[in-house]
Each structure stands twice: as C-alpha cells, then as structure tokens.
From TrEMBL:
GO MF term set: diguanylate cyclase activity
EC number: 2.7.7.65
GO cellular component: plasma membrane
Pfam families assigned: GGDEF (PF00990)
Record bears the keyword Protein biosynthesis: no
Alphabetized PROSITE patterns for the sequence: GGDEF
Protein name, entry field: diguanylate cyclase
GGDEF domain segment(s): 543-676
Length: 676
C-alpha cells in the first residue's frame, strides 16, 4: 500500500522536475537570442535616427547659405553644436565647401587635412551613383579625425552628406555646394550599446578592413564556459546609399549542463509502464462484474441527454444502481414537461428580441452619425490648434491653402491678401478668372455669398482689430452647414490675428533700427552691424571693410540763427547728400546729434579713398539746406576714415573718430570760426 501511494507522487514529481529543467534550458537559449536581437535593433535604430537628423539638416536653408555667407557662421556653429549634443553617436561634425575647405566644425580639429581619402571616395560616389540615398558611410582606422581625448582608439565610422543648393528631380545630377561630415568614434558606439549588457556578457563587431569593436560589461573570465550567437548587422536605411555590413558575435557566461534527472526519469518511466499494464489487466477482469452495470446506467443518461426519454429495463445487479435508474426516469418526465414550457417561452422571447434589435439598430445608427459629426468637429478643431504654430514658422500662402484643403478637400479654395502691393489670388480648385466679379468693398459684413454663372462662392473677409480688411478667403461650394461656418470663421480669426501680428512686428523692428528724423539706420543698427563686421574680420582677415565717421559743422549756429527747424532740415539734407555718393553695398547711419557713420563693404584703402574723394567733391560743389521761407545754410561736415587693410579691426572706430576730429579742428582753424 505504501508503494502504491508513493509511486504516483514520485512520477508526478519527476515529470514536474523535468518540465522545469526544460523551461530553464529554453530560457537560457532564448536569453541570448533576445540579447542579440536587442543589440541588432538598437544598433540599426541609433544609425537610423542619425541618418534622419542628417537628412533634415542637409536641407536646412540657412546651413546651405552659411557655406558662402559669412554672416551665417554663428547659425552654422549653433546647428552643428545642436546636432552633436542631441545625437549620442556623433562626437564631432564638420561643414566643408565644394573644394573640401573647412567652413565650420564642432568638437573637431581646426584646419584638419585628413579628409583627402574621404574626399575622393565621396566625390566619386556622388557623381556616379544612381541610388536614392545620399549619405555615404565609411570606416576609418588609425586616422585622427577628432581630438584624441574623444577617440583614443582612432577608429570608428564617418558619414558624409553632400549639400545641394536645392532639391532637383530624381535622377538629375548636380554639383554639391559642400559636404556635412560627422564622426562616430568607436567609443560612442560602445557607450550606446553597453547599457544593454549585464556582467559577463559581451559582443564583438567584425568588419573587413578594420579591427574588431568589442563591447563588454564587467570583467571577462576566460575560464567560464560561454554560449554565443552570430548576427548579421547592417547599417542601412532609405538615406544611406551604400549599406555597411558587420558580423556581430554575442557571448554570454551561461552554463548549459546535462539534466541530472534524466536517468531517474527513465527508471520511473519503465516502472510506470509495468504498473499501467497490470492496471489494464485488472480492469479487464473486473469489467464483467462491476463496469457493465455502470455502462447500462450511462446509456440511460446519454439517452436522456439526447432527448430520448424511453429508458429500457436492464439487469443492474446492485440495489444502489437500481435506485439511481429509478431517479433518472423520474427526472426525465420532469425535464420533458419543463422543456415544452421553455420552448413556448423561447418563441415569445425571440419575437421580443427581434423588436429590441430593430430599436437598438436605429439608436445605434443615430449615435454613430452623431459621433461621426463630433469626431469630424474635434479633428478640425485640433487641426486649427496646430495651425497657429504653423503660421508662425512657414509661408502664409502655402500654410493656409494646405490647411484649408486638408479640412475641406471636396471644396475649391482661393485667398487674396492686401498686406503687400501684389494682390494676387492663390487658388486651389478655382479658376482665378471666376473671381473677377467678387467686389469685397461692396459688402459691409465679414461674410457674404457671390455667384458667377452656375458657381457659388462663400466669401470670408479677413479683418483686423480696427475693422480694416487684410484680405479675403473664398470657398467654392453651394452651401455650408452651421458647424462648418463656425470652424471656417474661427480659422479666419486666427489668420487675421497672425497677419496683424506680423505687420506690427515688422513695423516695430523697422522703427527700432531707424532714425525717425532722417530715415537712416540708427545707432542701434550701427552697433549690431559693426560687431558683425568685427567678427568677420577676425575670422577672415583678408575680407577688408572701411569705416567713416562724419560730424556736421555749424549745426548749433543754424539752430541759434534760424531755429530748430533749420537744424532738422540740415541734418536731413546732409544724410541724403552723404547717401547719394555711396554705393548700394555701403550703409549710412545717423548715430545721434550731428554725427553720422558709413560702413564700407570690402572697403580697402583704395575704396575708402575713392569714397572720401566723392564726399570732398560734395563739399566743394556747395550744397545748401533750405526752408520754405527762403532761409538756407551751407552744408559742411568733417570726416575721418579707416580701413582694416591698414588698421586692426578692434581699433578702427577710434582711428576713424580721431581722424574726424582732426578734420573738424582743421576746418575751424582754416575758416577762423569758433566751434560752439
């Protein structure tokens, strides 16, 4: 009896142990599969993010202009800094022109000469490739492309992206304006992948032509058995022209030993087979004595379950089984009566369900239509919320038309703005000739309808806070619902607020840097421009510029003798006279009081001398500032100039100012007048 009680428990325990061992074994094998898959996906995902950032940056308009425009160097530097700081793989970035001369770099080496091999590789591929991608990936080994502190191993990956003036039709060839080069050192790849490893795990990336890249965490114990798996890793996406292939071998310190319970389970299995055979023999012998009456009883139960309530009499042999058979017969009679009653009620219930389903269908249809209207309204309102932000960063015409077409693609749209001299229609799905009959001034309300033959136009005026008309939006559609009218009206209000804000900002910016009396640029504009020229001169000493300092003679005498109206007219006419002899590239400023300044672009000594002669000629010709009553005062001024060709850029202001005061002193000494 003890043996019979213990044997089933032993068998069940052995099976459970075997199952647990198999689960652990499968888990260990699955663990390295998941680790290798995770590392592969992370490797590809990091380079995809990098390629996406480079693709967006290569089309940056200010970056393209920054290759040739010195004034945009600060933007280029900030752009490269943002790229490196926000992309973990990148350690340094270079912007070079078409001749591979450095324009700007971040975290790089100034004046680096190590791009000769990369130059030939990228240039040939850009000129000959027919693929869609325009990013080129290369390995480098034993080359110092960035400071050693960032890349002690002097190996890694470099990506080159050509920068074009504009995007042309696919397949056409054009010469790049320059190239954006980013450096991905091995150290950054290790830093990105290491968080995914645990102690005792490591991965080795292999590639022809360079040393292996090993990423590990903790200390590696050569004596500990390992399991490994090899994965093919590819740096490839829609931006990369030629993929780069690596072989990644992942190692894990996990010992997969032999199952210690296998032999015991074999013995238990043999014993179990013997016991089962004995049990079958015993069951066969006892069937005729005990199992056959149970079979008769089960046949009766099955008959009841199948709907047959006629149970034949059988020799059940045991009194207990006979009592159970009588009970089953009573139950069949009761079940049959209940079944008949249930069938009648079911018929009534089916009729009620059909009516209920019909009503539910009608209500569901109404609710679905209501939800669709609300969903459409919510989508439109969400679109309008993002519309204001898009207006602040994009072209008004294209942004507005794109938004309108996305809201109501089934209608035609047109827009005309009055904020500039060119009042042209921008249309989408409307012929501009059909809009000639729309007279905005003939309607006082902000909304009106207009008809042209069989076409109906819904017109919405764009009004500012002073009820001035800034433009009009026209919708070609017969009728619009009230919800649509409210959405479009809200759209027009957002557009009018943005237009009015832009006009106000433009006017404020103009006032901030303009002298109100003469209309020339003021002292604030002069300080900003001079600072920019000082930065350009510091970075590119061969780009000369000149500075003239001018002071009007006799301003106080004119104010004292004829009044301040004459003084103001003298300042206005002097500014216009100076500007008349300057080139379009030169810029004239009124610094305040009777002081003026001129910044001469590309002003070397010769150019400054020529401008100085033209100003002297003005004084010799004898020009006058006059009032309507006939009073007039001769225009005369003292001037001093200096060029960065002869003087340090930081001292040019002092040199020119000193020369001007010497000229002013000479004037008063030669005329015998006393300066006041």
């Amino acid at each position: 009896m003890v043996f019979v009680a213990v044997l089933p428990a032993s068998i069940i325990g052995g099976l459970l142990i075997k199952q647990q061992t198999e689960v652990e074994t499968n888990y260990r094998l699955d663990l390295i599969d998941r680790l290798s898959t995770t590392l592969k996906q992370e490797f590809n995902y990091r380079f995809y993010l990098l390629s996406t950032a480079l693709d967006v940056l290569s089309r940056d308009r200010l970056l393209v202009q920054g290759i040739d425009d010195f004034f945009l160097t600060s933007h280029v530097d900030a752009t490269l800094e943002n790229l490196v700081d926000n992309t973990p793989l990148i350690q340094a970035a270079y912007l070079v022109n078409a001749d591979w001369n450095e324009v700007e770099n971040y975290n790089g080496i100034n004046g680096i000469k190590s791009f000769e091999s990369l130059k030939s590789l990228v240039t040939v591929r850009v000129d000959t490739t027919k693929s869609i991608g325009n990013q080129w990936v290369f390995n480098y080994d034993a080359e110092q492309l960035i400071p050693k502190k960032y890349n002690p191993s002097r190996k890694g990956v470099v990506i080159g992206v050509p920068i074009f003036q504009s995007t042309l039709t696919e397949g056409l060839k054009r010469k790049p304006l320059g190239y954006l080069i980013v450096i991905v050192p091995v150290e950054n790849i290790i830093k990105v992948l290491r968080p995914y490893l645990k102690d005792g795990e490591h991965v080795v990336f292999k590639h022809d032509g360079m040393d292996n890249i090993s990423v590990y965490k903790g200390k590696l114990d050569p004596a500990v058995p390992t399991v490994s798996k090899t994965e093919k890793v590819t740096i490839a996406n829609k931006y990369i022209s030629e993929p780069m292939f690596y072989e990644a071998e992942v190692f894990m310190n996990k010992y997969l030993g032999e199952n210690p319970f296998t032999n015991s389970l074999k013995i238990l299995s043999i014993v179990t087979v013997i016991i089962v055979m004995l049990a079958l023999l015993t069951a066969t012998i006892s069937y005729r004595w005990f199992a056959k009456p149970l079979t008769y009883l089960m046949d009766s139960v099955r008959a009841c379950l199948s709907g047959s309530y006629s149970i034949p009499d059988k020799d059940l042999r045991f009194a207990e089984l006979i009592m159970v058979n009588d009970l089953i017969q009573k139950m069949t009679s009761t079940i049959k009566a209940q079944f008949d009653d249930l069938e009648d009620k079911n018929t009534k219930l089916m009729s009620f369900n059909e009516q209920l389903e019909k009503k539910v269908h009608e209500k569901t249809l109404q609710l679905t239509q209501t939800l669709q209207r609300e969903e459409k309204r919510r989508t439109m309102l969400q679109s309008l919320l993002s519309f204001s932000n898009k207006l602040q960063h994009g072209d008004i015409h294209s942004t507005v038309m794109t938004q309108l077409v996305s809201l109501y693609p089934y209608a035609g749209w047109a827009m005309q703005l009055y904020v500039n001299q060119k009042r042209e229609w921008v249309c989408e799905g409307i012929n501009p000739d059909d809009l000639a009959s729309i007279d905005v001034e003939a309607h006082c309300s902000e909304y009106f309808r207009a008809n042209n033959n069989d076409k109906t136009f819904q017109c919405f005026k764009i009004m500012d806070t002073h009820d001035e008309t800034l433009g009009i939006i026209v919708m070609k559609y017969p009728n619009i619902e009230r919800d649509d009218f409210e959405v479009i009206s809200l759209f027009v209000y957002q557009l009018s607020a943005e237009l009015e804000g832009r006009l106000l900002n433009e006017e404020l910016e103009r006032i901030a840097i303009t002298d109100p009396l003469t209309g020339l640029s003021n002292r604030k504009a002069f300080d900003v421009d001079l600072e920019e020229w000082l930065k350009v001169s510091q970075r590119y000493p061969e780009q000369y510029f000149g500075l003239f300092m001018i002071d009007v003679n006799g301003l106080k005498q004119a104010n004292d003798e004829y009044g301040h109206h004459m003084g103001d007219q003298l300042l206005i006419d002097t500014g216009h006279l100076i500007q008349s002899v300057c080139r379009q590239t030169d810029k004239v400023y009124r610094l305040g009081g009777d002081e003026y300044a001129i910044i001469v672009k590309l002003g070397d000594n010769t150019g400054c001398e020529l401008l100085k002669q033209r100003l002297r000629a003005l004084l010799e010709q004898g020009h006058y500032a006059s009032l309507p009553n006939g009073d007039k005062v001769k225009i005369h001024f003292a001037m001093g100039c200096a060029s960065t060709e002869s003087h340090e850029a930081q001292n040019i202001y002092q040199v020119a100012d000193k020369a001007m005061y010497l000229d002013k002193k000479a004037f008063y000494e030669s005329t015998g007048l006393t300066p006041r």
